[in-house]
Sequence to fold (1156 residues):
Amino acid sequence: MGAGVQPILEADEFDDAIRRIPPGKIGVWWFLASEIMVFGGLISAFVLFSFASQGAFAAAATHVQWRLGAINTLVLVTSSLTMILALGYARAHNLARTRWCLLMTVALGLTFLLIKTVEYTSEIREGFVPGTSLFWSFYFGMTGLHGLHLIGGIVVNIFLLVAALRKPAWDFLERRIEFAGLYWHFVDVVWIFLFPLLYLT
Amino acid sequence: MSTAIATAADLAPVHEHELGFLRRYIFSIDHKVIAKQYMTLSALMALIGGGSSYLIRWQLAWPETSIPGWGPVGPDNYNALITMHGTIMVFFVAMPLLLGGFGNYLIPLMVGADDMAFPRLNALSFWTLFTASAVLIASFFVPNGPAASGWTGYVPLSDKALYTGVTWGQNLWIIALALEFASFLMGGVNFLVTGLNLRTRGMTLMRLPLLVWLELTAAVVFLLSVGPLVAGAIMLLLDRTMGTGFYQPDRGGDPLLWEHLFWFFGHPEVYVVALPGFGIMLEVIPVFARKPIFGYRMVVYSTIGAGLLSFIVWAHHMFVSGMDPRLASPFSVTTIMISVPFAIILFAMIATLWGGSIWLASPMLFALGGVATFLIGGVTGIFLGSAAVDIVMHGTYFVVAHFHYTLFPVVFFGGFAGVYFWFPKMFGRMMNEVLAQLHFWVTFISFNLVFIPLFLVGLGGSPRRIYELSSYETLKHLQPLHIIATLAAIVLLIGQLPFIINLVYSLLRGPRSERNPWHANTLEWTVDSPPRHPNFVVPPRVYRDAYEYSVPDAVHDFIPQDLAPEEAFGIRGVAD
Amino acid sequence: MAHATHLDTAARSNNSLYLFVWIWLVVLLGVGLTLFGLPIPREVAVALIFTVATIKAVLVLRNYMHLRHEPFLIYLIVLVPVLFFIGLALALVPDLVLRHAQ
Amino acid sequence: MFQFDTVERSLSRFVTGAMARRAVCQSNPGCLSGTAGASSAKSLTGIRDVVGGLLPENVSSFGGEIDSVFRLILYVVGFFFVVAEILLIYFAAHYRRSRAKRALYSRGEKAREAAWVLVPAAVILMLDLGIDAAGHRAWALVKQNPPRSEVEVLVTAKQFNWNFTYVDKNGKQGSGNDLTLENELHVPVGKVVRMILTSEDVIHSFWVPNFRLKQDVVPGRKIVAWFKVTKPGTYEIACSELCGFGHYSMRGEVIVHPEAEYARWRAEASVGAPASR
Fold:
């Protein structure tokens, strides 16, 4: 390909594949890549310290309420379902059900936080605070950070719900629900790993 | 494309004329205005950072005297000064200028997009950074002063107030960095989506201007490296506020964890700053040599290679930190291997000059000056990369001189090259060449006079971050070198006056510039100076890569990317 | 092109599949908990529990986050960070773990 | 790194010898070579002195290894640095813009062109690996397998002091009559001294320029370092990791005694030990 006479568009599969991704979607993915590194860093540190702690972590872990944790996992997984169904119904232009699913998602998210608060209070009553030991530092640090992410997701979903309650532009609503969903499911995936890490080991 | 435009559209359905002052110049969502805001912010922070360097240098040269225009500086103030100097220069000058400023201004124009993919996110990321700077500056005025544990904030020094006496200063430092990271996280996502998905027709990946390639690589490197440090910063903040013990050995924590997490980000961060600087040089050199960049693909691949390598070299900052000595040699190998991609990039720049028709205008001078000085930073890096020699060099002034020789060329030589090169595009006026040349020569000479003596101070064995040499008998003889460096530093600071004068004068009185004063090829030169918002009347169509200079039997010695072949080679001239 | 993508993704979104995946997620949660309860050596249990967690994560990623329909680039965006932080963790092992083992 | 020293010597002899020979030949046409031996030896030591003069005097057994790696890197990167700068300046000066002729159109993408960049890069890669190998030998010697120690000292750093505790010959360390000195380390010349470094508060760094020895001192870790001094005298210890407002004055001294003198000092010190603590 010499001087100014290069082909107008080179045949470049990868290139076109990238262009076809909606900007919003790939933007969310780039953001998630960075989030993976945040939680990845925390989780690696936790795992390594728990290896180093020679059983201290496992001992401390017996004091967390794994039942509540399990219930919370169920709640969060279900909220993922309602979130993705919201997308499905939005694409089918079924407004009533879209609204209902978004509402359920928000409700389930709040339920998760509620249960988490119950856990926190009972643990703190028993005298387990972030400063108690390294395990509890990680426990509160990681679940706290996860909780903040969840709050962010809930806020976004409330915005979408409001948008859905008004007369929505379908194209806009779908895209937003899809992108918000990506984030919501990611927060779910993080919990899927945090639960066994903190409760079951 | 249409998706991209749709998104841009439903986010930014605005036109300048119907905007008031506030929406147009302050809370604007035009990437060109936001870019100028970034540049202004980094210029203001640079004044603080430069001022602190004056205090630091004076203290080192004449420790017993009180500093003219300031007064005496105590050891604790000195530690605070070096901490804030490093933090400000890296996070609040270099990144806002090279990514926030040039990246924001040029990526959409160069790929033929009307604006960033997410204009509001773009504005939000600037205002987040603005808040971060405000927080950092506020930390100067809180009780017990600003952070004083070095820009690396090593624990336990930064972990407990009783070690430095700093209380809220350190917390605000952490918060400022967290906000800064959030800002550039948003910015990085925006860059990547804009640069990859908003490319206009015909703008294939291998036709992207190199600046875009390097900015995008920098963005990816930042996004993927910052996470662990965010995690580490959260732990540090919890340690300081919630009484946890992540970094306190007596409670099962480990100080080396912070060093690992910090440098896992800290080293890639150097490339986040360096690559855009190189990008500017790579844009300027072909234009003023009137030659295609030598080995475009080589440069692209070495850039990506350098980006990947930067993730597996961090422990070279920790050779003598007490980490497992078996880690040293592998990290030595990867570290020294970094010299290969950067050598390729630098050789490509030099080879581009060969057989060219070179015009040493101020942008070219700064670009070449940047290459010439960065070579010193690069080669001295090999000494530090070798674990054995690093036993001697680590934590000495050799390191200080080394990283100033890597960062100053890319940030300031690169940055000034960019300003002199794109000023006509940004403001529609030319800058004064005489003042520019004066500015270059003063900066170039005084910069080298500051830091070459510091290499010798380091070889002489002087640790860095010490308040005065005189407490060590064997270091006393190095004092004259410090005095030379300080005098040169003062000249360097004063030497920026021509630039400031030039800037102000040209903004007001500079001669009007046409669209394409340098006869360059990339798309930003095909629109008005300054460009309108949205950038392009019709989405441009790209026919070739960005460096078609001096093509045989073409009408002119340059062929803009969007010029139809028949116009480029037919009898009709270039429609400029 | 926006319209085009919207149409074919609409064709993809499939509520019965989503429900099916959810059932699997719940089942796997149960499996994880039973493993936790079973009287088997801790190491084995932990290993299995995390295998289950990984399967759940993959289910969510591929079906709810539509990764199965995405181009190669998005796989890269997900996998490269994972590789990086695993590499970081491995590099930390000598300093954080082996030190105590001695 | 002995191989490298011989290479360095012969290489430098060759260069200087050639230069001397040319000088002689210019003076008288019918010249005989071989007059260069002495001068080359001198200029050889010249090179090493200039390099050595930049660093503090080395008095440790392993410092020479590190210095030779330093010189190896200096020669290698020095060569590429000089070549690159010369080309940069020469091109910039020689190919000044001329309205008359267009610049040469070369995209540097054909293999023959790209070779101008890729071949030097490949050479650099080779040399890098050489530097790695040389560096690894020196590193392993200093940090990886400390030799059997003859004197053992517990070094405890704290803001802003160095404390040196000698394990009492009869009785383990910690038994009442250990000897602890502040900012003052006495060691015998020519003996392997083994240090166990710990910190009470923050990270410090034990740095003796003349020993070419630096080791961070980390709280919660017991880090082992060693050295063997080849020349009696007093050498300064500097803290080279920022450790607070007193960092700049966290200074200590290593006093290296001849053996007999050290034995005498040790005997006296132990007697007065309880008093001195």
Notes: Chain D has three domains: 1-54, 56-97+104-145, 151-276. Residues 1-54 of chain D form one domain.
